[in-house]
Specification:
The chain is mainly α. The protein has 21 helices and 8 strands. Helix 4 runs antiparallel to helix 5 and helix 4 packs across helix 6. It is globular and about 85 Å long. The chain starts with a helix and ends with a helix. It is found in: Membrane. It is a multi-pass membrane protein. Its main location: membrane. Keywords: Membrane, Transmembrane, Transmembrane helix.
Length: about 625
């Protein structure tokens, strides 16, 4: 009997190996397999950040595009790339599976970075250099050159979208969450991986940007291509060791089914009792019917056709005309978080300024430290460092003070006796070690164990809504400081000859705006992850996580739209965002963003109060 039980424990119940046989724990999965998978994410993050943060200087300095146009190109590309991760997730969950999605899109990413490297070295694919004596007569890139550039950039973006949606999820598949030992291993592994990802990002905005600016673009882009190609080789080499799980199906279909079923039965009168409503979930997983958005309840009405189908020998209702009450309520839960979703978009518009106009500002200023010239894009190191420092201070200073004030000591208690925190594994974070079954399971979108860290912190610290609100408040100050620093830069520019370059003002006066924006992201990012994960129904966490990704996407789109609107309203005579920032009023543009952010914060507070009221009324 013990031998039979031991034999059963050798296999993962919900995974298979590359041949389709039950996955053997001794030969598949574990740390090595997860590391092979997450190498793709590590080098994707490094290469994408190294290229994205310094892209405006390439468009401005090499392709000779106006500053506002360069900013819009980068913002639009980033927005579309993050939006593509949603479609990539649907593709992975419904058709390809995570392995093939990663394999295909990582190669697409390699193609994109390789094409960028080729573009940067072939003279016919870029305009000639400007004449130093005639800086105003630079030849702008023609349609062919821009066309090839767009193909390369968006090929890379497609690859990025496909990778981001699947890598973390496939990594978690390599650990059996029913096995205590493997759950603990998964917690330690992903925490350390997140730390190295952060270090990789810092390397991207320092070392790799320096290579681009001081050595050659082709070497910078070429090194990114080589790293991505290496990650693909490492990933494919582990094919026989991986554990594979079937396509879980996209929760997007559930939302569509509920909406379609409700529309099809829109003329049927809805009674106040629940007897006419369909429910097929067990008592433990049922969600009670709520009073708001009652039009969707019609999707659960049993009519004559539905009754005939459910009374058959093999009852199988058509999900496009009949949904359970629980499924309807899950969609309602998603609807309730939409106002919070909408009012957090504006932060990512602020974020977009850090990799576009703020970098262009730095490019016009003195960036010398002794004899060393700091690349303009490398000022984002202060942004990233501020994120890590903010989370570290919050974890090591604010949380202990908060618990001391509350009269509690020691380690954070587990969530429902399920999550425990190990406080000695990271320089910046209280790292999480999963000792028992987590209450919030890893979702189809690949939510990593870092979410459990965020969840655990809210027990004795700020709630997710408070974190997001604080981050939105800090972002207003970031744009306000940016406007003041730009006004100071413009004052120097107007009093200096146009032939003087760079301007005799230190680029490090921009550090406060980077630091404030980074601190804001530390709160908004973790708050969003916490909120969208914990406030969504268990079966729809993929959609919830995709909402988080689309806030980033829409934030970049809003940035592009604001640039276009401001350029049109300010006119050609008093253009706030002309080709040369020294002749514009970027300070006023930053001021407009700060004003919009302030209005948005007010709306966010109202939405947060509405959400808390609805949650108190509908959730037990």
């Amino acid at each position: 009997m013990e031998i039979e039980e031991k034999g059963e424990n050798m296999f993962v119940s919900d995974a298979v190996d590359h041949k389709g046989a039950p996955a053997n724990k001794s030969t598949t999965g574990g740390w090595l397999s997860a590391a092979s998978i997450l190498t793709v994410e590590l080098f994707e993050r490094l290469s994408t950040m190294a290229i994205a943060v310094n892209l405006v200087t390439y468009l401005d300095g090499t392709m000779h595009l106006p500053s506002a146009t360069s900013s819009n190109i980068v913002s639009t590309w980033a927005g579309i790339s993050f939006l593509l991760s949603v479609f990539g997730a649907i593709l992975a969950d419904s058709f390809l599976g995570r392995y093939w999605t990663i394999a295909i899109f990582s190669n697409v990413h390699v193609m994109g970075t390789c094409l960028l490297a080729v573009l940067s070295v072939l003279p016919n694919l870029r305009p000639p250099k400007c004449n130093p004596s005639l800086p105003g007569d630079c030849i702008v890139a023609n349609d062919l050159q821009l066309g090839v550039f767009y193909v390369a950039l968006y090929t890379m973006g497609v690859g990025m979208g496909g990778i981001k949606c699947s890598v973390s999820g496939f990594g978690t598949d390599q650990f059996d969450q029913k096995d205590e030992k493997e759950k603990t291993q998964m917690g330690y592994f992903f925490n350390r991986f997140y730390f190295f990802i952060s270090i990789g990002t810092l390397l991207a905005v320092t070392v790799f940007i320096y290579i681009q600016d001081k050595v050659a673009r082709v070497w910078g882009y070429g090194s990114c291509t080589a790293l991505m190609f290496f990650s693909v080789v490492v990933f494919l080499s582990g094919t026989k060791r991986y554990r594979y799980k079937g396509c879980p199906g996209s929760p997007v279909l559930q939302v569509m089914q509920v909406v379609v079923a409700a529309i099809r039965k829109r003329k049927i009168q809805l009674l106040s009792n629940n007897e006419q409503l369909y429910e097929n979930q067990t008592d433990e997983s049922r969600i009670k019917r709520t009073r708001d958005f009652r039009c969707l309840d019609k999707a659960a009405i049993l009519d004559n056709v539905d009754n005939a189908m459910t009374e058959a020998e093999n009852p199988k209702p058509n999900p496009w005309r009949l949904c359970s009450v629980t499924k309807v309520e899950e969609v309602k839960m998603m609807i309730r978080i939409l106002p919070i979703f909408a009012t957090t978009i504006m932060f990512w518009t602020v974020h977009a300024q850090m990799i576009t106009f703020s970098v262009q500002q730095a490019a016009t200023m003195n960036r010398s430290i002794g004899s060393f010239q700091v690349p303009a894009g490398s000022l984002n190191a202060f942004f990233i460092g501020a994120i890590l420092l903010t989370l570290g201070i919050y974890d090591r200073v604010i949380i202990p003070l908060w618990r001391k004030k509350k009269g509690t000591h020691g380690n954070i208690n587990t969530i429902n006796n399920s999550i425990s925190v190990n406080r000695s594994d990271s320089l910046f974070f209280s790292l999480v070690s999963l000792q028992t079954q987590p209450k919030y399971e890893i979702d189809n979108f690949g939510t990593s164990v870092i979410f459990n860290y965020i969840i655990s912190q809210t027990i004795s610290g700020l709630t997710s809504l408070q974190k997001m609100g604080l981050g939105l408040l800090i972002s207003i100050f970031s744009m306000g400081v940016a406007a003041i620093m730009e006004a100071r830069r413009l004052k120097v520019a107007k009093s200096t000859s146009s032939m003087v370059f760079p301007l005799p003002v230190s680029a490090f006066i921009l550090v406060p705006q980077f630091v404030l924006a980074g601190a804001a992201e530390g709160f908004v990012y973790t708050g969003q992850l916490d909120f969208f994960l914990t406030e969504s129904p268990k079966g729809m966490k993929a959609i919830s996580t995709s909402l988080f990704l689309t806030t980033i996407s829409f934030g970049y789109f809003v940035s592009s739209a604001l640039v276009t609107i401001v350029r049109k309203l300010s006119g050609s005579r008093h253009n706030w965002l002309p080709p040369n920032l020294n002749n514009g009023r970027l300070d006023l543009f930053y001021g407009v963003i700060a004003l919009i952010c302030a209005i948005n914060l007010g709306l966010y507070i109202l939405c947060a109060k509405w959400f808390k009221k609805k949650k108190a009324q509908t959730l037990n």
